[in-house]
Automatic annotation (TrEMBL):
InterPro entries: HTH_MarR-typ, MarR/SlyA-like, Tscrpt_reg_MarR-type_CS, WH-like_DNA-bd_sf, WH_DNA-bd_sf. The keyword Lyase does not apply. Residues 27-163 form the HTH marR-type domain. GO terms for biological process: response to stress. This is Winged helix DNA-binding protein. One of its GO terms (molecular function) is DNA-binding transcription factor activity. It comes from Paracoccus shanxieyensis. Keywords: DNA-binding, Transcription, Transcription regulation. It holds the Pfam family MarR_2.
Length: 173
């Protein structure tokens, strides 16, 4: 019996650069695209968990679990690893502890700080998100979307923007 591919790769229409009236316009368009991508990522995670019949987690909480990974970190370290637009990381961590996805304990060296790590249930959620991302990466690879320009070059450019922004923040303070 032939197996069905659960997420068929659909051809993506080619997009052509739209000439911006200025570099500033192109930069502002990039910022809007990033915002939309972030919201879409949350929608994708939400849809995946709905398909799995799981309504106990928000997309932000699932992404927090994913970014926590197999590490044991403080809430501040976790906040710096991911984008949690419009969310309170401390509140979401508290909810994840209540739901049994995250274990927390006070640091021995600094009792004000709390270290967090995934429970076995949290590890299972992380695997679901990792599977989702792997399926999408495979689909994007097969479609050629990651090739022109190469995703590595795009990532390099965004890391440069990130560094520039960080320098701007340091300059202000």
């Amino acid at each position: 019996m032939p197996q069905r591919n659960p997420s068929p790769v659909r051809p993506v229409p080619a997009l052509r650069p739209v000439p911006a009236t200025s570099r500033t316009d192109a930069y502002l368009e990039s910022l809007q695209i990033l915002e939309r991508l972030h919201r879409l990522l949350q929608d994708i995670v939400k849809d995946e968990f709905e398909r799995l019949g799981r309504s106990d987690l928000t997309p932000v909480q699932a992404l927090l679990i994913y970014n926590l990974g197999m590490s044991e970190v403080t809430a501040g370290e976790l906040r710096s690893r991911g984008m949690y637009q419009g969310s309170n990381v401390s509140y979401n961590l508290k909810k994840l502890v209540e739901l049994g996805y995250v274990h927390h304990e006070r640091c021995e060296m600094d009792r004000r700080s709390v270290k967090v790590r995934l429970t076995p249930d949290g590890q299972e959620v992380r695997e679901r998100v990792a599977d989702l991302f792997a399926r999408h990466a495979e689909g994007l690879e097969l479609s050629g979307i990651l090739d022109d320009p190469a995703i590595e070059a795009v990532n390099l450019q965004w890391r440069r923007v990130e560094r520039y922004w960080m320098e701007q923040i340091r300059y202000i303070y």
